[in-house]
Hints:
Catalytic activity: an aromatic L-alpha-amino acid + 2-oxoglutarate = an aromatic oxo-acid + L-glutamate
Shape: globular
Strand order of the largest sheet: 3-11-10-9-8-4-5
CATH architecture of the largest domain: 3-Layer(aba) Sandwich
Strand content: 15-25%
Subcellular location: Cytoplasm
EC number: 2.6.1.57
Cofactor: pyridoxal 5'-phosphate
Structural class: alpha/beta
Amino acid sequence: MSPLDLSHLLSEQAKARKGSKLKSCVHYKNEPNFGFLAGGLPLPSYFAWEAVSASTRKPPFEGGLSAISTAENQLSFTVSQDSTDLDIPLSASLQYAVAIGPAPLRQFLIEHTKVVHKIPYEEWELATTVGNTQSWDACIRTFCNQDDSILVEKYSFSSAMETAASQGIRLVPMDVDESGILPEKLESKLFKMKAKGEKLPKIIYCIPTGQNPTGICISGERRKHIYDIASKYDLVIVEDEPYYFLQLDPYVAPEKRGSSTKSLTNSEFLESMVPSFLNFDTEGRVVRLDSFSKVLAPGSRLGWITCQKKLMERFLRNFESTFQTPSGFSSSIIYGTLSRWGQQGYIEWLKALRVEYTWKRNLAIDFCRKYLPEALSRINAPNAGMFFIVSFDTSKHPEFATKYNSDPLAVEAAIYEATIENKAILVPGSWFEVREKDEEPSTVIFFRGTYAATEIDVLEKGIQRFGKAVREVFSLHE
């Protein structure tokens, strides 16, 4: 099975990109007895660093990720200019390099992708990036011309939306429910646009797992339905998946929890994951964005993009003239860690993250149930990601029509201001909303909180103070 030729969906900018002439001859540098005088590549002896040392922990990470590091569970290594085997030597990682990324790290990620995802075709490629924000920017430039449109979730990551809007791209919201994008509504929207002779969007952009801001995780069945619609209307799906491995155990009330959760084998853990859109991609119309930001460290600024080879060739032309390749320090340190953990050790790390984030999610929801007014609040208990949302029907405010002029955003602003006055902060849902022109705001508003960013005592105080602010705005007594 081979992917479809989707070159007709490329932007004018992508079609016009030429290969770098300077990059075309760099491979001669390693030819024996060759006088390579073509590139401005400094000698490694002129680099400021001779070695970089790092310390991490050893699989299987027993005791949890918050356990104190000891000599027994610590793994230390040093990457030098001439390191071999388990490392990318600094003489290579700190040098100018090819846009597709360092070969050892790419090979690890390719094997990881084969272990986790079952891509139905063979002609796919993977390239390293500096994270999903940069990858998303590259997707827009590769597929969209100014005045094109893209389909996005009704509530989506505001920075991603700003990235698209600043390039003159029109955002078309997709209706969602508590399980994510509604396939029937999506198909109806596309059918009506086509019937009216309107230009169809080129891209479906979504955060399918642990969606930011809602925490929604789209089921495998619904992903397949959405993929079939994308195929029918000839769209590219860009799945932005930084939270993919933060799929959590279901929330249960404290009184119903057991003393411990079942320990999964690595195979059971992978089988429990909701499948990627890649798993259904028989035509090569999925571009997947992955990142180490949420599973290793945000400041690593290292991610990767996976898609069919013909599309990747256009992405690489973009990378050659923009960021070129991710940070050599990040590449060496992350690969040095992963090569020592191995594929199974990395999965052990991801399993440990599930335990940690499930525990913190549980506490966040427990605190919400304890401190928020039950009659007003609707609390989601996400099955993935870092975020939870609390919703309120502003029409229930006793002064909704008089004091707030029936404006839900005015109530939202009042809650936000009261929360800050109480020395806490959650983010208003309207900051993430993508609205059709002239669409009236819903009377139901929400606030996004995270259980990832703070210690437990701060998490509890923040939710308690948020509850106090809501009561003040709704004139409720403790």
